[in-house]
């Protein structure tokens, strides 16, 4: 049997740990395994490289992806898609394992509909897929944001200021929510709820009157301009306000322990699903690894952790 693996879309810490688990499980099962370089672009151009035990040595702790990644526009075209199918035929690939986020798994769905045995593994710092509790890379991004906020808090406290910290997440507020709880931020602004600037301003002023000298507001990128918000907030409260856009720092770095374990589980199980000719995307639900059909993956709506928001509102005052 021959399995191929590719990484696509935005990279996520833990992709390498997943590749390692896939390759080592394949070798254990006597399955030949090929890495496709550069995501769906590499699939179109047939950039296949045979992977052996040593190809994945010393990568469990590394961010990024040894297979490199792209956001492929050619794969969206009929011509590109046909070429991709052709590459799989030429290399006699029995199953393909795709690591990536929403867009990449949509590509996996399309290949599956064309008759390819495909297993998708959710890798994205955004945690924006409803069918799985966690995507690989999310907890690492939350750790990075949390660490950055402790540094920001020191200087914010020293000056008695407010700091609006913009985080990634596309249309999903999970990075803001989880890092809000773990960093003790006073307020979060997420795309899932309309923002109430008066409420945020009142909370900051009540804190200030109590003697509080730092006000951290985390704003998810899907909520507009952090600079505009900061200007408005400063006008309302009179508190000197700065902005920090964390940006790509959130996508790199050594994966957290949680992500390394999840990556190992997903990588290992992906090989056995592929071996059994089962197609779909893997997820982690209440601590269990599941496979969801590509149909349902995009039909299950993402639920916002309202319980965590209530906790934040209660304890971060
Ligand atoms: O999907 C991961 C992500 O980092 C989002 O949080 C962000 O909106 C986007 O990718 C940035 O994409 P790019 O790397 O193409 O700039």
TrEMBL record:
<feature type="binding site" description="in other chain">
    <location>
        <position position="221"/>
    </location>
    <ligand>
        <name>substrate</name>
    </ligand>
</feature>
<dbReference type="InterPro" id="IPR012003">
    <property type="entry name" value="ATP_PFK_prok-type"/>
</dbReference>
<comment type="similarity">
    <text>Belongs to the phosphofructokinase type A (PFKA) family. ATP-dependent PFK group I subfamily. Prokaryotic clade 'B1' sub-subfamily.</text>
</comment>
<keyword id="KW-0479">Metal-binding</keyword>
<keyword id="KW-0808">Transferase</keyword>
<feature type="binding site">
    <location>
        <position position="242"/>
    </location>
    <ligand>
        <name>substrate</name>
    </ligand>
</feature>
<keyword id="KW-0460">Magnesium</keyword>
<comment type="pathway">
    <text>Carbohydrate degradation; glycolysis; D-glyceraldehyde 3-phosphate and glycerone phosphate from D-glucose: step 3/4.</text>
</comment>
<keyword id="KW-0324">Glycolysis</keyword>
<keyword id="KW-0547">Nucleotide-binding</keyword>
<dbReference type="InterPro" id="IPR000023">
    <property type="entry name" value="Phosphofructokinase_dom"/>
</dbReference>
<feature type="binding site">
    <location>
        <begin position="71"/>
        <end position="72"/>
    </location>
    <ligand>
        <name>ATP</name>
    </ligand>
</feature>
<feature type="domain" description="Phosphofructokinase">
    <location>
        <begin position="2"/>
        <end position="272"/>
    </location>
</feature>
<feature type="binding site" description="in other chain">
    <location>
        <position position="153"/>
    </location>
    <ligand>
        <name>ADP</name>
    </ligand>
</feature>
<feature type="binding site">
    <location>
        <begin position="20"/>
        <end position="24"/>
    </location>
    <ligand>
        <name>ADP</name>
    </ligand>
</feature>
<feature type="binding site" description="in other chain">
    <location>
        <begin position="212"/>
        <end position="214"/>
    </location>
    <ligand>
        <name>ADP</name>
    </ligand>
</feature>
<keyword id="KW-0963">Cytoplasm</keyword>
<feature type="binding site">
    <location>
        <begin position="101"/>
        <end position="104"/>
    </location>
    <ligand>
        <name>ATP</name>
    </ligand>
</feature>
<feature type="binding site">
    <location>
        <position position="10"/>
    </location>
    <ligand>
        <name>ATP</name>
    </ligand>
</feature>
<protein>
    <recommendedName>
        <fullName>ATP-dependent 6-phosphofructokinase</fullName>
        <ecNumber>2.7.1.11</ecNumber>
    </recommendedName>
</protein>
<keyword id="KW-0067">ATP-binding</keyword>
<keyword id="KW-0418">Kinase</keyword>
<comment type="function">
    <text>Catalyzes the phosphorylation of D-fructose 6-phosphate to fructose 1,6-bisphosphate by ATP, the first committing step of glycolysis.</text>
</comment>
<feature type="binding site" description="in other chain">
    <location>
        <begin position="184"/>
        <end position="186"/>
    </location>
    <ligand>
        <name>ADP</name>
    </ligand>
</feature>
<comment type="subunit">
    <text>Homotetramer.</text>
</comment>
<feature type="binding site" description="in other chain">
    <location>
        <begin position="168"/>
        <end position="170"/>
    </location>
    <ligand>
        <name>substrate</name>
    </ligand>
</feature>
<feature type="active site" description="Proton acceptor">
    <location>
        <position position="126"/>
    </location>
</feature>
<feature type="binding site" description="in other chain">
    <location>
        <begin position="248"/>
        <end position="251"/>
    </location>
    <ligand>
        <name>substrate</name>
    </ligand>
</feature>
<feature type="binding site" description="in other chain">
    <location>
        <position position="210"/>
    </location>
    <ligand>
        <name>ADP</name>
    </ligand>
</feature>
<dbReference type="Pfam" id="PF00365">
    <property type="entry name" value="PFK"/>
</dbReference>
<feature type="binding site">
    <location>
        <position position="161"/>
    </location>
    <ligand>
        <name>substrate</name>
    </ligand>
</feature>
<keyword id="KW-0021">Allosteric enzyme</keyword>
<feature type="binding site">
    <location>
        <position position="102"/>
    </location>
    <ligand>
        <name>Mg(2+)</name>
    </ligand>
</feature>
<dbReference type="InterPro" id="IPR012828">
    <property type="entry name" value="PFKA_ATP_prok"/>
</dbReference>
<feature type="binding site" description="in other chain">
    <location>
        <begin position="124"/>
        <end position="126"/>
    </location>
    <ligand>
        <name>substrate</name>
    </ligand>
</feature>
């Amino acid at each position: 049997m021959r399995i191929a693996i590719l990484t696509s879309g935005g990279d996520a810490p833990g992709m390498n740990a997943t590749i390692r688990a896939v390759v080592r499980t394949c070798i254990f099962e006597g399955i030949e395994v090929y890495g496709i370089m550069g995501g769906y672009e590499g699939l179109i151009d047939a950039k296949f490289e045979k992977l052996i035990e040593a190809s994945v040595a010393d990568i469990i702790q590394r961010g990024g992806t040894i297979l490199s990644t792209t956001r492929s526009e050619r794969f969206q075209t009929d011509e590109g898609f046909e070429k991709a199918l052709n590459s799989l035929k030429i290399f006699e690939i029995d199953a393909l394992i795709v690591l990536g986020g929403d867009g990449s798994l949509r590509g996996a769905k399309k290949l599956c509909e064309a008759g390819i045995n495909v297993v998708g593994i959710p890798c994205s710092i955004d945690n924006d897929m409803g069918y799985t509790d966690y995507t690989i890379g999310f907890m690492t991004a939350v750790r990075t944001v949390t660490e950055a906020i402790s540094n920001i808090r020191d200087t914010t406290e020293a000056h008695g200021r407010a700091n609006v910290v913009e985080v990634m997440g596309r249309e999903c507020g999970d990075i803001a929510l989880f890092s809000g709880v773990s960093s003790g931020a006073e307020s979060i602004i997420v795309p899932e709820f309309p923002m109430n600037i008066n409420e945020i301003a009142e909370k900051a002023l009540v804190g200030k009157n109590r003697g509080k000298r730092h006000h951290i507001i985390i704003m998810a990128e899907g909520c507009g301009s952090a600079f505009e918000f900061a200007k408005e907030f400063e006008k309302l409260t009179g508190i000197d306000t700065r902005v920090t856009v964390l940006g790509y720092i959130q996508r790199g770095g050594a994966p957290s322990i949680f992500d390394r374990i999840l990556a190992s589980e997903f990588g290992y199980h992906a090989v056995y699903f592929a071996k059994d000719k089962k197609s779909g995307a893997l997820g982690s639900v209440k601590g269990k690894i599941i496979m969801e059909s590509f149909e349902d993956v995009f039909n299950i709506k993402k639920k916002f952790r309202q319980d965590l928001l209530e906790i934040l509102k209660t304890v971060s005052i």
